[in-house]
């Protein structure tokens, strides 16, 4: 495999990306019947975007400004597309599709900058195009395609800056892109910190080089300025509307249960627990995420990680190649300390999965190159039985497939997540980590089997090509299943949330206030003023939860006219206050956490009438 691929080869991953978009959209129209979004979060962005376009400010309840979005840049981008197309759903999907294709092109460019081999860059583009979470976000109304494209652009400019000395404007463009990515996905700040750390420490070897460190640290000043110019307006808006520098969504979902808050509050117990529950338990979770993304890619990605870190091999010509493996380590580590309850959710780490694909492409080409050399263990190969190699190859594939498909992962992870939210001892954490051992061992077995095949077979290139081909084929199969799941998610949101909002719009007065726990689709369809029982856009709900008050006690304080909830049993605490007036159910509950929505009339509304 060589790098002599035509300049038009970038069209291969772009065409494949177009086919992926067609797969997801076609599945959506077939199974859901009408377009929509697979998560209520996308409809939350849509409400903010519509209010922006209609001149009501960055607000959820029209005219009431609130820092209620962790992805404000995506909200603004949706608003811009909506103002142009007057189509919220299709306009957002078109925007996501364009950014998704841009991300594929940038992935190709990053690897080409790293290796100067077009074949490797094409393979990287193909793997990123086949990354199902990337395509899901593109058509699902979420910010994934935006922050992935911005992160890859930041990486590209960082690599393009070079060294001795680096180009300042390209380095600043990298900082600008990653700062903007932080407005699309706040975890991307960790990637910005990684690029600056790698730039400061690049080629610092020995005492003479260390004397240059103060000058390099001084060089961070313009980058800090760019970062401040991008992030300060949003931090100021959050502070003015919710009283914290971070948006209210962060306060609602993460709050104070993290290492940073423990340090600032001098809470030693919380600090110890955060250090253990975060980085330690995120390691097996990350391994599962990568294996579930594509287990057959894992050996190649591990090899690519090594090659990029050591900077050796004919395929690696760039002095800043350590950025990719460093980002893969520091990004989840930062997440585990700041938001341990996020649990490395796929839509928060799609940029990490993209790096997994890029390293997999580098590793595959490196494995292909070394497999073509004369074997160094011919004596061992002669002693092998002719039955051993097929057994090793079969074991590799069976182990990898089992790693992807074993359904026992889910209860393991559910147990882990449940324990993370409670007070547990160190021994209990160790027990939970032990429960995760089986899928990790399966993955290690698959990796070991692959390495044995690679080292011992007389036709190593055939083994590499076979596993690489199966890797791509398996990814396509996972994409088909993901497209159907996406369609069912859209159908469920339309049937539960949008349908409830439309019923409210038809049957309830315009001037009422409705309390909700899923606020996006219902508010978008109903255009009613709402009270958020979770607290994403209602800070008062968080304050009540912190002091141990129940949902009903919160409702007593805010006195909404109606309540629409997916947790109707919570109303049993004071049934005399709530009268059910409407019920919505979905029959095909495959991809939704809830299947029932109940609308209650409150006693306060009856008294008012």
Can you characterise this structure?
The chain has 609 residues and is mainly alpha-helical. The protein has a domain of 122 residues: 3-Layer(aba) Sandwich (Rossmann fold), CATH 3.40.50. Helices cover 67% and strands 4% of the residues. The protein has 28 helices and 5 strands. Helix 25 links the parallel strand 1 and strand 2. Helix 1 runs parallel beside helix 5. It is globular. The chain starts with 10 loop residues before the first helix and ends with a helix. The N terminus is likely disordered.
Helix content: 55-70%
For this entry, what is the oligomeric state of its chains? single chain
Give a quick account of the main beta sheet: strands, pairing sense, barrel closure: 5 strands, mixed
Distance between the termini: 77 Å
Tertiary shape:
globular
What is the CATH C-level name of the domain at 487-608? Alpha Beta
Q: Which residues sit in consecutive blocks of at least 5 with pLDDT less than 50?
A: 1-5, 313-317, 375-388, 406-430
Strand fraction equals under 5%
> Count of helical segments?
28
Return the CATH architecture of the domain at 487-608: 3-Layer(aba) Sandwich
* Number of β-strand runs: 5
Radius of gyration: 26 Å
Strand order of the largest sheet: 2-1-3-5-4
Mean pLDDT reading? 81
Task: Say what the CATH topology of the domain at 487-608 is.
Answer: Rossmann fold
Structural class: mainly alpha
């Amino acid at each position: 495999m060589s790098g002599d691929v035509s300049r038009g080869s970038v069209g291969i991953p772009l065409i494949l990306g177009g086919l992926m978009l067609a797969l997801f959209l076609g599945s959506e129209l077939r199974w859901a019947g009408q377009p929509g979004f697979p998560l209520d979060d996308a409809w939350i962005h849509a409400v903010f975007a519509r209010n922006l376009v209609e001149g009501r400010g960055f607000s959820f309840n029209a005219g009431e400004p609130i820092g209620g979005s962790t992805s404000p840049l995506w909200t603004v981008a949706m608003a811009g597309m909506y103002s142009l197309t007057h189509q919220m759903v299709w306009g957002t999907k078109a925007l996501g599709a364009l950014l998704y294709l841009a991300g594929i092109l940038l992935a190709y460019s990053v690897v080409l900058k790293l290796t100067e081999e077009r074949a490797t860059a094409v393979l990287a583009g193909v793997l990123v195009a086949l990354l199902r979470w990337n395509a899901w976000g593109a058509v699902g109304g979420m910010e994934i395609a935006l922050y992935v494209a911005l992160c890859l652009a930041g990486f590209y400019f960082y690599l393009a800056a070079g060294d001795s000395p680096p180009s300042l404007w390209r380095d600043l463009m990298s900082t600008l892109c990653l700062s903007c990515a932080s407005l699309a996905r706040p975890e991307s700040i960790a990637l910005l910190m990684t690029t600056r750390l790698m730039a400061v420490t690049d080629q610092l070897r020995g005492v003479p080089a260390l004397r240059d460190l103060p000058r390099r640290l001084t060089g961070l000043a313009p980058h800090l300025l760019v970062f401040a110019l991008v992030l300060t307006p949003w931090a100021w808006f959050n502070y003015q509307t919710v009283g914290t520098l971070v948006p209210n969504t962060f306060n609602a979902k993460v709050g104070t249960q993290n290492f940073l808050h423990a340090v600032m509050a001098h809470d030693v117990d919380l600090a110890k627990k955060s250090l253990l529950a975060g980085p330690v338990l995120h390691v097996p979770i990350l391994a599962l995420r990568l294996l579930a993304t594509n287990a057959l890619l894992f050996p190649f990605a591990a090899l690519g990680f090594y090659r990029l870190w050591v900077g050796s091999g004919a395929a690696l010509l760039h002095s800043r190649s350590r950025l990719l493996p460093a980002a893969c380590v520091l990004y989840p580590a930062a997440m585990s300390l700041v938001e341990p309850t996020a649990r490395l959710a796929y839509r928060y780490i799609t940029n990490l999965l993209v790096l997994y694909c890029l390293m997999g492409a580098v590793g595959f080409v490196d494995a292909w190159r070394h497999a073509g050399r004369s074997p160094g263990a011919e004596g061992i190969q002669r002693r092998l039985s002719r039955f051993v190699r097929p057994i090793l190859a079969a074991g590799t594939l069976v182990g990898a497939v089992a790693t992807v498909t074993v359904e026992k992962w889910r209860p393991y992870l559910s147990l882990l997540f449940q324990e993370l939210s409670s007070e547990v001892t160190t021994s209990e954490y160790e027990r939970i980590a032990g429960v995760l051992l089986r899928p990790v061992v399966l993955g290690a077995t698959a990796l070991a089997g692959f390495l044995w095949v690679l080292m011992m077979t007389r036709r190593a290139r055939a083994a590499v090509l076979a596993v690489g081909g199966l890797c791509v084929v398996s990814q396509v199969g996972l994409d088909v299943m993901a497209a159907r799941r996406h369609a069912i998610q859209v159908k469920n949101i339309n049937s539960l949330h949008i349908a409830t909002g439309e019923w409210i719009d038809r049957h309830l007065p315009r001037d009422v206030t409705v309390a909700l726990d899923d606020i996006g689709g219902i508010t978008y369809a109903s255009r009613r003023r709402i009270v958020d029982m979770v607290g994403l856009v209602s800070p008062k709900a968080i304050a009540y939860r912190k002091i141990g008050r129940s949902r009903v006690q919160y409702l007593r304080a805010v006195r909404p006219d109606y309540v629409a909830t997916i947790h109707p049993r919570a109303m049993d605490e004071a049934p005399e206050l709530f009268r059910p007036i409407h019920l919505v159910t979905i029959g095909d509950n495959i991809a939704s956490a809830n299947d029932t929505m109940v609308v209650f009339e409150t006693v306060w509304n009856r008294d008012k009438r």
